[in-house]
Amino acid sequence: MSILVRFKPASSATSQQYDETIRRLESAGEFPPDGLEYHVAFKVGDQFLVSEIWESQEKLAAFGERLMPILAEVGIDPGQPEILEIHNIIKP
Questions:
Q1: Which of 41, 53, 61 is nearest to 91 (CA)?
Q2: CATH number of the domain that 53 lies in?
Q3: C-alpha dihedral over 27, 38, 69, 84, to 10 degrees?
Q4: What span, in angstroms and rounded, lies between the C-alpha atoms of 53 and 13?
Q5: Which end of the chain, N or C, is less surrounded by CB atoms within 10 Å?
């Protein structure tokens, strides 16, 4: 069952921190991770947010083990993500 994950960092993250996180993940061969179906990064006002669709909770958790140390290094506190079960996905 696919899940939707919405990340709203506990403290304001910047686009520079986000870009550095992605650069480090790509350099380590960790991005895009197995099980990630869709990734969107966007700003609402001054807040930088990320929403993702994952194949499963287990794949998200496995990637989280590799992601969390990098987020700490670049100074992003991801807060507690909101995880929602997806009922349907329509791809035109």
A1: 53
A2: 3.30.70.100
A3: -170
A4: 21
A5: C
Helices (H), 2-92: 15-27, 57-74
Provide the residue range defining the domain that includes 51. Answer: 3-85
Q: What one-character DSSP code corresponds to residue 44?
A: E
Q: What is the pLDDT of residues 5-64, one digit of tens each?
A: 999 988 888 999 999 999 999 999 999 999 999 999 999 988 889 999 999 999 999 999
pTM higher than the cut 0.85: yes
Through-space distance between the first and last CA atoms of the chain, rounded to whole angstroms? 20
Task: State phi, psi for 81 to the nearest 5 degrees.
Answer: -70, 150
As for how many domains the chain has, the answer is 1
